[in-house]
Amino acid sequence: xxGANYYEVLEIxxxxxxxxxxxxxxxLARRYHPDRNSTVSDDIMKNINIAFEILxxxxxxxxxxxxxxxxxxxxxxxxxxxxxxxSSSNQDNWEVYTVSDDLNSETxxxxxxxxxxxxxxxxxxxxxASVEKDNTFLESRYRIIVEPSLCxxxxxxxxxxxxxxxxxxxxxxxPKAIVISETAEDFExxxxxxxxxxxxxxxxxxxxxxxxxxx
Length: 215
What we know:
Elements: H1 6-9, H2 18-31, H3 42-55, H4 58-99, H5 116-122, H6 131-141, E1 142-146, H7 156-160, E2 165-167, E3 177-179, H8 187-195, E4 202-206, E5 212-214
Antiparallel strand pairs: 1-4, 2-3, 4-5
GO biological process, one term: ERAD pathway
Protein name: Chaperone protein DnaJ
Keywords: Chaperone
């Protein structure tokens, strides 16, 4: 049963209590019992028994949850390494492209497209500007993404920023945290909430530059 997700095997939420775990086990045991379904592989019932043995024991369940988080973090680390490699390759390609670009082509200078309002907001002399306007600018600048393959729905992001993140608690199988608003909290609150995610499933991206702010 290597690599299997015990919660998915029992078709339950990661937040399931002991009563729900036992109920799910009984339901699946009846469904896949050889007397009722002779075509079912023995491995299916074996996997169900293993999953129930782990999740019905609080100590074993805690160890399993910790190992699950560790595996997600290792996958994320490998993903970051691949992303860095691709980023380096893309940069090399961009440098080659710009060097060979036709200087006589009808193109507009990037500097002609500079957002003057953005520069004004960065100017310390404008610190007396409306706080509401500044917050609106900052909040609307960032894109907030929850990567489903990494999210384990621990709920810490919802605790810190409930107007931005919500865990799908009504979803019985494999619930996830989702973003319901990118502008309901200030940037610092959203960043603090993202930092509490143990699997780094929350990504914050600068919409203007494309730069990944976090993680």
